[in-house]
Specification:
Layout (H helix, E strand, L loop, with lengths): L4 H53 L5 H12 L1 E7 L4 E5 L2 E3 L7 H8 L4 E6 L5 E11 L2 E11 L1 H51 L14 H49 L6 H33 L4 E2 L1 E3 L2 H17 L3 E6 L6 E3 L1 H17 L5 E9 L2 E8 L21 H7 L5 H11 L3 E7 L3 E9 L9 E2 L1
Parallel strand pairs: 9-11
Antiparallel strand pairs: 1-2, 1-6, 2-3, 4-5, 5-6, 7-15, 8-10, 11-12, 12-14, 13-14
Helix pairs in contact: 1-2, 1-4, 4-5, 5-6, 7-8, 8-10
Amino acid sequence: MTMNRIGLKLGVAIMVLIIVILLSLGLAVDRLFTTFYDAQMKEDTHEIAAHFTTMAASGEDSSQSMIRTFAEFSNVKVYWLYADGRVLTLEGKKEQPSPSFVRKSENRRLLSGHAIEFRFQDGQHNRYYVVGKPVKRDKSTRSAIYIASSMKQIDNSLYRLRGLLILSGLGAFLLALGMILIMSKLLSRPLLQMQHMTGKMAKGDWDARLKIGGRDEIGMLGRSINDLAASLQRYRDTRQAFFSNISHELRTPVTYLQGYTKVLADGMVQSDKEKEQYLSIIYQESVRLERLINDLFDLSKMEEGQIKLTMESLDLKGPMKAALQKVKLKAENKHLSLQVDVHEHVPCIHGDRQRMEQVLLNLLENAIRFTENGTILVQLKKQNNAGVVIVADTGIGIPNEELPFIFERFYRVEKSRARKYGGTGLGLSIVKKYVEIQGGTVHVESTAGVGTTFTLTFPFEEKHEKGGMIS
């Protein structure tokens, strides 16, 4: 079984983050309580030392006895420093020898009238907080008192606190570990499905689809992959259909050319009228073949990004008139009415005359091809700051479900209908490309059985240099 590396990496990353957070919180809580206990002990010890110093400074004979009694209740050790350097321990019922933390340097400092404080650890690793205060009488220091508070209780409290922190941290770690395992699997599962699907797509299986449940970024990525698979599937299907159709489209005129040329070459023509008919067929098929070759040539240039335009100040009336003149005979042969509506005072645009004529010619030929009776309207008008060209027909129309794809390369609406009416599936994709690289937009509206309307919108010309090549 393949290791879930995405889930593993995600889990490790989150786990490291959890560990860092737990350690930081644990250290912060430990430091907080340690600081609190230390501050509390310092305050209590200094307060006791102040009381004992006041009692000792009173000069009463019972001072040491009272201090010893209070020391037992306060759970501290009291050491009395005399002026001659002797230190007596006021603990229990009798005096004991001085402890090891009492040093001559601290004694001299105390007897000179300065208070001291420090920490001390004995041989049994017991820690003490020691405060020394001078006992002053008549503004002179004759003795001093050491107060040693045991830190054992604080150390025990901190030890228990740290144990609780470790247990709670371990519990939180295990809980987080379980949650991370679940979450990493849930989060990585759709990514693994995407990996599996893209692997299928790389092998040519574009029929697979992801089951998308969420609406988050991962869900959006899954839907994008599904859309990509659908587009690739359409591309494959339309490309296969294109090669099949283009081979048929190329074979047909070539067959006609070969057949009728052989007839003429062999002298099998019975009359001049028949000869003219054959020559007319040869000419029509050569034109058809030329159109196919031009479409393929344009497609090749589009694929390589080598389309070059000669941009100039362009009056749309010119290419529109030229395109209408070329399709006029075809429309008359099908008894179609060509209606032209050109508004006056439509400013020039910045475009390529030849490519603009090709765009209009493609749209008009499509309109004629798919219209059996009725009218074809070509309109030029001004709308806001743009020139608008409309090509509308009363033909068979395009189904709504096909409209989003008609500008895709190789795409042909209803393959059976495409065979009947001809075409290569390249005309509209070429139209869209040429319109967009001239700064325009193309929009289509259609109703099956009613007709189709193409709307081209081009912004009016700004200040451009005359001529020039763009790619």
